[in-house]
């Protein structure tokens, strides 16, 4: 008997209509996440490179407004991806492309919560100080989150379309 790590239980697969519904949720969440990253990038780059202090101040102060929508999109994308992995023949760790997408989603979600969140609140505070008068802060690291996250999400999308690398090697019992 062949068993596969993190695949749907024997005899259990999502019905086609359910699978399509979950897939739509997954695609919409990923698209929303990419769009929110683009918005984050627009705000960051506008605030950094404008010559107008009021525009920069407003851009920095608006950044935390994107945090919870990004976290929500990331969690919905992760949850729907896990449901798809468990409820379809792809499994969670059966194919390399699925495992890489799972790892990217987990990593990006953790980075948003652990690293981006404090940076956005720091930028908003700087924006408030900037609105009151000249202020200084080192916010150069804010350029990386929208670039890294957008790139990783596009890579995940490409993996979903091309499905490269084949199957992950299973246990000795599976290979026998």
Describe the structure.
The protein has 176 residues and is mostly helical. It is built from 6 helices and no strands. It has helices at 16-49, 53-62, 67-87, 96-132, 144-162, 172-175. Helix 2 packs across helix 4 and helix 3 packs antiparallel against helix 4. The longest helix is centred in the middle third of the chain and has 37 residues, at 96-132. It is elongated and about 60 Å long.
Topology of helices and strands:
Blueprint: H1 16-49, H2 53-62, H3 67-87, H4 96-132, H5 144-162, H6 172-175
Helix pairs in contact: 1-2, 1-3, 1-5, 2-4, 3-4, 4-5
Entry summary:
The protein is mainly alpha-helical and 176 residues long. Helix content is 71%, strand content 0%.
Number of helices: 6
Average pLDDT, all residues: 91
| Cα separation of the termini | 10 Å
Q: Let me know the number of strands.
A: 0
Low-pLDDT sequence parts: none
Helix content: over 70%
Rounded to an integer, what's the Rg over CA atoms?
20 Å
Strand content: under 5%
**SS-based structural class?**
mainly alpha
């Amino acid at each position: 008997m062949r068993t596969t790590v993190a695949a749907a239980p024997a005899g259990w697969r999502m019905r086609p209509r359910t699978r399509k519904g979950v897939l739509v949720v997954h695609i919409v969440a990923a698209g929303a996440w990419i769009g929110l990253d683009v918005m984050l990038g627009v705000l960051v780059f506008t605030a950094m490179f404008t010559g107008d202090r009021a525009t920069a101040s407003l851009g920095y102060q608006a950044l935390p407004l994107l945090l919870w929508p990004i976290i929500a999109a990331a969690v919905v994308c992760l949850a729907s991806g896990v449901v798809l992995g468990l409820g379809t023949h792809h499994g969670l760790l059966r194919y390399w492309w699925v495992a890489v997408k799972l790892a990217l989603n987990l990593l990006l979600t953790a980075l948003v919560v652990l690293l981006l969140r404090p940076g956005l609140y720091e930028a908003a505070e700087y924006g408030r100080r900037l609105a009151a008068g000249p202020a200084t802060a080192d916010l150069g690291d804010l350029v990386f989150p929208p670039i890294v996250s957008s790139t990783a999400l596009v890579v995940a999308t490409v993996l979903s379309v091309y499905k490269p690398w084949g199957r992950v090697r299973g246990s000795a019992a599976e290979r026998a």
